[in-house]
Design goal:
Blueprint lengths: L9 H5 L5 E3 L10 E3 L19 H8 L15 H11 L6 H22 L10 H4 L2 H9 L7 H23 L2 H21 E3 L5 E3 L6 E9 L4 H9 L14 E6 L2 H13 L14 E2 L4 H16 L5 H9 L24 E12 L1 H16 L2 H10 L8 E14 H9 L4 H23 L20 H7 L1
Parallel strand pairs: 6-9
Antiparallel strand pairs: 1-2, 3-4, 4-5, 5-6, 7-8, 8-9
Length: about 475
Amino acid sequence: MPNHKDGVDPSWLIALSHVTRPTAFQPGLHPRETPVSDFHANLLPPMLRAYALPRGTMQAVIGGRSAIDLPKLDVTDAEQARAFLLRYGYDICDQNHVELIEKNRAQSLGFIRGVLLARVDLEVPDWLDEIPVIELLLTAATGLRSPDRLVRLRQAWACALLRVMHTFAHAENHFQHAYYPQIRESILNRFVEQVGTRDDGSPVLHGRETDVPLVRFEVKEAKPPRSVVLKLLHKAENVATDLFDHIGVRIVVERPADALFAVRALLNTHTIMFANIKPTRSRNTLVDVDALSQHVNNLARQVEMGQMSEVAAASSLATFKAVPPKNVPAAWNIHSSARYRSIQFTCRQMIRLTNPVWARMQAAQKVAAQHLTGAALAAMQQELSLSGVEREIQFFFPYEVQIMDRASQEEATQGRASYREYKRRQVTTVRGRVLGRVLDLEGRNPADEPRRLRQTVPLVPLRELLAGS
């Protein structure tokens, strides 16, 4: 060993890094990988081999990096691949688990083909439909630095599919699917009770101090699976528990100041609970509250001094339009246009549902009492004991509230901040994140979206063909 003052050759320490040093994923940016020298642990001096740490997976655990941004999977053989899959949650010896995996694969390939590559002239290779899952894991683990471009491309495709499959696995929420109707009804009932109509039929939000005229009151429908996966794939965390808008309402008022009155009305009637607001999800890009407060104080002084009538002051407030400074997209939704102006917040509501297990076991006890006696009844009652089974299920469920004025709503639906543009930005980011290396190897840019041109020839009518023969 070379003699250095620390007893270790610094050049060997360089080799302790992984074969790639990827940048952390930043929404909106295409994650690139900077290659460093390839190495194997057995190339290190024996005393240093224990320090050949799996850099990528270590970063995913202690470095705050998402697992789907790793350039390769760290398994070396079929046995490790099976162990990885088992601890992930799937036993390939269980036919039910195999069917779940294949369902996931079909959904994921459909998402890649139908969403990420819908407008890109690039085909998903057919082998991804049939490759056994263990072989898929091994393909994602080998070939990253191969001199053969086709081997690297195959590895990149395997990683891309696994990224989407992982996201679909997290998007499956049986609890939410099972109870969604009851959850939705419990949350929306509070709003429905507070929204009424005037004599002319126009909607109004009832408040303790004053009613707030509404332009529209809208209820957000549940996201379809592909929309959930698309949203998860552009989030750094990449887990379904970070989706807060499975249920949501949008309140459209006439003026920006009315949005604040709407918030007050919701608070005063306890339709929303301030104690259950998620602070990091609150965003106001619609009205500058400090500027409005200062404007109200200035008008009040002018009214007191006789320089302005109350009617004129009220008219001035009705046209107040100052927006908050530094209107930039929220960190949790970088695809939202800077022109999208609204008040948004996420509230959590306590949901209580009858436990279906408790209800079924209670019903089974009654049936047993009607048909069994003696020792048989005692044994069945012991099996059907409700000890430890809660009668109710209770939990907090998040939902999103958006409040905007008429002008902002029209801009959001017709202008540059349209939902179509929002989704396009989402797809571009996710395409780069999932298929980044595939696109690199194919010489493509994630933002390139050439329309597919169908190579069709107009059919000549049969009558014309017969006439010309």
